[in-house]
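Annotated sample (chain length 156).
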Amino acid sequence: MRMRTAVTILAALGAVLVDAPGLPAQEPRVRLENAWARRAPMMAGDGQAGGKTERGNGAVYVTVVNRGKAADSVVAAATDAADKVELHETYNMSGMMMMRPLPKFDVPAGGKLEMKPGSYHLMLFGLRRDLEPGDTVKVTLTLEKAGALSVDARVR
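Output written by the structure step:
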């Protein structure tokens, strides 16, 4: 009986300390940095993975930093600036740059995934508005373990 009472008291104290005001908040295990966007240039392969639209396409680049001890994966992305968002990789096929959709982007434990032109990126299909330099595009990435994280990407 005493053991159960002691465990209950310790659990209650732990819950109070976790939510105690004034204590420093723990930094998130996964964070998004250096997000930027642009209207996408036409490339060979447009129309294969998601299609070119009259309103145009765009791309978002962001660095996903994983400070955790376990790997994670970006499994989806969304924005209200486009009809559809796909995870893409740019690759070289016989001297021609091509793009292909991927089911996920892996983010190593204690490492990072850097999305950049000519590599991994978020492809925006069917832009709902023009992407003008200085504008921002809010993007939400969904990770297998960390869940949904949002970031504002500045248009260049």
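Annotation: Helices lie at 2-18.
Annotation: The radius of gyration is 20 Å.
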